[in-house]
Amino acid sequence: MTNQFTFLMLPPQSETTRTWAKRLADGVPGMKLIIAEDPDTAVAAIETADACFGTLPPELLARAKRLRWLQAPQAAPPAGYYYPELIAHSVTITNFREIYNDHISAHILAYVLAFARGLHVYIPQQLRREWKKPGEDQGVIPLPGSTALIVGVGGIGAETARLLAAFGIRVLATDARRTDVPEGVAEMHKPEALDSLLPQADFVILTVPHTPATEGFFNRDRFARMRKSAIFINIGRGMTTRLDDLVSALKSGTIAGAALDVYEQEPLPAEHPLWGLSNVILTPHMAGYGPHLNERRFQIIQENCRAFADGKPLRNVVDKKNWF
After folding, report:
1. Averaged pLDDT, 29-56
2. pLDDT tens digit sequence for 245-272
3. What whole-number distance in Å separates Cα of residue 189 and Cα of residue 109?
4. Whether the Cβ atoms of residue 83 and residue 99 lie closer than 8 Å to each other
5. Across residues 85-114, what is the average pLDDT?
6. What count of other Cβ atoms lies within 10 Å of the Cβ of residue 112?
7. Would you please indicate which residues are annotated as catalytic (active-site) residues?
C-alpha cells in the first residue's frame, strides 16, 4: 500500500534539483512535493515534512515535527553536516554512496600505473623537451608480485581491488563494516590490523570517508611504518591525512611518492610545498568526475522516495554517529 507523504527539497535550488523535483512529482505516487527556493519557505514547510533532501541546519531540525527521512546531498557531506542534534534525532539519513565506483577506481588505477611506469618523471621531462632514459631495471614498479593495501573497502575499494588484481597485484584490505571478501582481495582485515599491514604494501590506497575515527589518522607514525619504496594514494577525504606529515615523509625519503585528489585544505594553496615536489601527482578533487552522475543521484532519490511511500527499507542508510 502506498502511503501519502510530504517531501521537501531544501534550499538552495539549481536547474538540476528543479528538474529532479519535476521528475519526482511525476514518478512517485502519493507524494506531495515542496520546493523551497529560500529559507523562509523551508521554515514554513519543515513542520509538516515527512522527508526532505539537502542540508538541514539545526534551526530547521528544531521545527521538524514529522520528519522521518533525510536524503543527504552528497556521498560524504562536509564536516558539520552531522551535528549532535541531528545524530540524536530519530530521523533516518541516506546518502549517495556507490555512484562513483567506476570513475574513482579508474582514477586510482591511473595513479598506480603512472608511478609504476614513471610518468610522474617523464611528463615533466616532456614539457622541458628532455630525452633522459633510466637504466633498464630502474624507474619501474613491476605490478605482478607487488602488494596494494586498500584502506576502506566499500564500493570504490572493492572495484579498485578487482582492477588491481587483474594486473597481478596482491590486494590486502581493511574495513570497519565489511564481512565478505570482495573479488580481487587476497586478505580482508579489521581496521585494527592497519599498522601491521602497512610495511607489506607497495601502494597504500585510502578510500575511507571522513569520520571521527579517520580524521587525521594518516600521520607521521603511519608514514613511518610504510616501505621507503611505497606510494601513498588518497582519494577518500582530505581530512584523513595530515599534509604536513606527508610532506615531511616525502622530503625525507620515508616514502617514495604520493598521489592525492583530496586535501586538508581545498583548494590547495598555491604556496603549499606539495606543488613543488617531483615525487607527487596532484589532481583537484575530481576523481569522481564522469558521465551519468546526476542521473545516478536522481535514481537513488527516486528509489528511496518510492521505498519510503511503500514502507520498505531505504538505500544507503547512514550510520549517523560515524557520518557515513
Report:
1. 97
2. 999 999 999 999 999 999 999 999 999 9
3. 22
4. no
5. 97
6. 25
7. 237, 266, 285
